[in-house]
Fold each of these.
Amino acid sequence: MKTLQYLAVVALTLSLALPCPAHEAPTHEHAELVPIPEYNPPFGEASAAASLQAAQVFLASFDEATRAQLMYDLDAEERAGWSNLPARYVKRAGMSISELSDDQRRLLFDFLASSLSEAGYRRVMDALAAEALLSDAWTARLRGWSPENYWISFFGGPSANSPWGWQFGGHHLALNLSVEGNRVTSMSPSLIGTSPAVFSYNGVAYEAVVDMHRAGYALYDALDAVQKAAADAGEVPDELLTGPGKDGVVPPAIGVSAADMTANQKGLLLAAISHWVSIQPSGNAQRRMAELEAELDRTTFAWTGANDVNTPTGPTVIIELLSTGGGARGGHGHYHTVYRNPVLEYGGSSP
């Protein structure tokens, strides 16, 4: 019997169709790719300034013609082409890990470490480890399961004086960060997922996304009976309502209002939200959490399932977590989650 979970801070979901094959899985060895290098930002603490330095060093490692494959206009349509589907089904922008030299691969992870918090970098590490586990399956080539099937791309030229952004992702991962004035302005939309969630690979134990699930359930468990009834999200959706291809969708706010929560419950709601917000550099995450705390009373939380589904939503935040149970390759759990700021997608100006 399938166990279902769903979280929403503003919560949403969509069903996915499988398009025609887009990418073949690479055939070369990835034993040295997983685990990816430990978190070690080379330009000091992760920040927009450190991200810019690392991006410039990474891009300088390519000749002009090859570098052009990574670069897009700021508002290029490819920016909205991210997906949680395997590489076989959706073409991504930019260049894949499989196309990088050993030195360029190292510089890519230097860039990610410079652009994400340690917690955010860990999300990348978990996603690639789960993909490495899936790559041992006999269906891996058919679906494009490989830790080398993750793509990096840049939108607008990295600069301290003009807006730019970057995208990194593949199966179960899509990070979209925007920078302007040497400050991260948005990490929306970003998708974090995994299958499986609890597994071991090459003797290393992994537990991906489960902390996000537990944080949502901790709040649900702290609600009284009346609040739980108000928080009931109803039927579990088949997929994320605000997932890939759903830019601009703002579902109706559902669930229990934070205005009707106790101080302790509000603290648990903020703690749940922080699991997504903390993916970005800590200075930016702190500013974003202060914004969300200021509007907390206009935020709602919904949950469906036992300890399965949770979602918060507010004026400038949509978070969904969907767990369909199951697992793969001897592991457990299958999660899709998404974070959006509907008034600041891809770093655009607020209305």
Amino acid sequence: MENVWKNRIPRINEPAPEFSARTTHGPRALSDYHGKWLILFSHPADFTPVCTTEFIAFAQAYPKFKALGCELLGLSVDSNFSHLAWVRNIEERFGIEIPFPIIEDISMKVASDYGMIQPGASDTATVRATFVIDPEGRIRAMVYYPMTNGRSVAEFLRLLEGLQTSDQHAVATPEGWCPGDKVVVPAPTTVADARARMKAGYDTVDWYFSKKTLGTAKAKKKPTKKK
């Protein structure tokens, strides 16, 4: 079977491909985002309806991403002039300002390095690819959508919070998890741990399946003042 991939798709937990590119906010490189979370996402083309809905949703959620220490960075193979005209059009027609940069990638160099050009969909436009990159520059998650269907921005917020929770507390998150829900306790790896798990005080169904609530420590009562 003929190999249709021009470049290898990046892999989870590996370093994100380096880039340096022109954007609507000036030059940007991957190194500019070191120490922050970054969501890099591609769209097929400027001045298209589905892409417009996605950019509006990302712009409206931008304060929430910022509060989580995460920046947004868009990309398509359109020119910087096209990006600028489209951004201005969205602000004029929809009343939404796009507060994050969009990469100009006419050469398709960045798109190719990230596997955003997929010949089964198009040789000349990017699919809806989304990469979550951690503060160390590693790819922690990636999602590909076809050109015909828009992404859920709320899902990327949920995913980002899940990744940050897993990193901070050494836990996993179950299907549909949202902040405040119980998290999954990693399964025991020894016979002794498996025996102890049933008495560990978690919400345990069986030795390998336990959940717990984060931040359950009771707040200390303030001492009462003596009269």
Amino acid sequence: MSDSAAPPRAPSLTVSRHPAVLHKLAILRDERTEPKKFREIVRELSWLLGYEALADARLRPRRVRTPLEEVEAHELGDRIGLVPILRAGLGMVDAMLELMPTAEVWHLGLFRDERTLRPVEYYNKLPDSATVDLCLILDPMLATGGSATAAIDVLKRWGASRIKLINLIASPEGVAAVSAAHPDVTIHCAALDRALNEKGYILPGLGDAGDRQFGTGRRD
């Protein structure tokens, strides 16, 4: 098979292959996983993905004294902002704060119009100007890419210059949309799934991440 026949892969996309990520992802996908366990796995996966996504965070040197002597060490040089997309992104925040306790948290509310599948902004708690060096957008699902692209648009108008997108599951359509609109934004996820269905849900996916976290899905 020639290289031109291979499916396109966005250079800004990183799909984790860590065994712990793959193990937890299977639990997350399982329709039998109850909301409590689902929230726990969202948190654990978010920590692992955040750990990988922050591998290139900038540092500055410092000296510390051990009980025996002074030593050259490092401290985080980037001011980091966490931007969960309401509501599903809320389940990813605590894990990221465990990694980066000094991070600021700003909320964006976007919902998908079920008729047009386009995002509608209904809440924005960003301050007047950018106060961080690196923004991490947190959203479990990257489906059509509309909400992610809209969030990135908002952050760039705000003044953010370095932005990363952290998702649990992404679709090829969503990755393509974000990469086309914002090629400078890197995407970190646990899985790149097959496609979207006619309603804009990821296949095989895991259903509605917000409903499964908060127990608000339709009951037959």
Amino acid sequence: MIAVVADLVEREMAYTTDSGVYFAVDRLSGYGALVHRSVEDLREGAGARVDVDDDKADPLDFALWKAAKEGEPAWDSPWGPGRPGWHIECVAMSLDLLGDGFDIHGGGDDLIFPHHENERAEALGCGRAFATHWVHNGMVQVGGEKMSKSLGNFTTLGDLLGAWDPRALRLLVLQTHYRRTMEIGSDTLDQAAAALGRLDTFADRATQANLPASVPDPAVVERFRSAMDDDLGTPAAVAVLFDAVRDANRAIDIEDDTGAAALAAAVTTLSSVLGLELGSRGSSVPDPEATEIDGLVADRSAAKAAGEYAEADRIRDALTARGIQLEDNPAGTTWRRS
């Protein structure tokens, strides 16, 4: 970090004051490009985001090295005892470990300015190439508020994965574009778990249908690829997956085994791309509703075997009202969510 600051000072991209060493933003062409704002626009709002310091030549100038204050940690440097500024450590680590022009720099959208803009400025000020692509994700929210430790509204991954199938959390993340705010809570996780159940039910149905081996439907794969190539459009890609499940179920219904096989192969392949292993064997956490439905299907089969057709019809009607479709075949009865 000291070496990077010294390089900036030597290149006259930074200056020293009694309070520390500051980067001079007006000496860097294109400062503000990451947030698509001019220096003048940023300067107007600097008072709300940047500490006021009469020693600075410009309100936008930011600290590279802060002079020591009583009671604060301090290290020796060419500019006296002090500590690094907020941004310099990221630049020093990135350039040292990844080298110039590394591919991707990620982070939350709340870090675009000033943190990421200032990282970029420091690297360019040293004559170094920095990140080729910047990827900024939206915040995770709970009840409409940003999830954070300070607000006490955070949930650990351990707690989530103890209560929901891990694949449901993965599907919830995939259904939200990475640049958009994502709401995580019981309702959204339950919805994701229900959607996952539809995928698992289809996978089991496709297995029981004994479809012929097939390559994935090329049209489905192409639609999926196009969605993912459009700024990692996972919500659109997931929609393609569910469309394929719908079309495959219809193909099975009309006994179009060839079409169903190609669509089922696409569902299996694309689910794997998304990190979702489908089918009853894919779930690492039992689905209480699925267990209950399996029990009701078994009760219906027992009622039919005993000649209690009214009871069998009652169970079937109750399941239909819950959006569960039954299919009787020589091997037994299968079910799926409609």
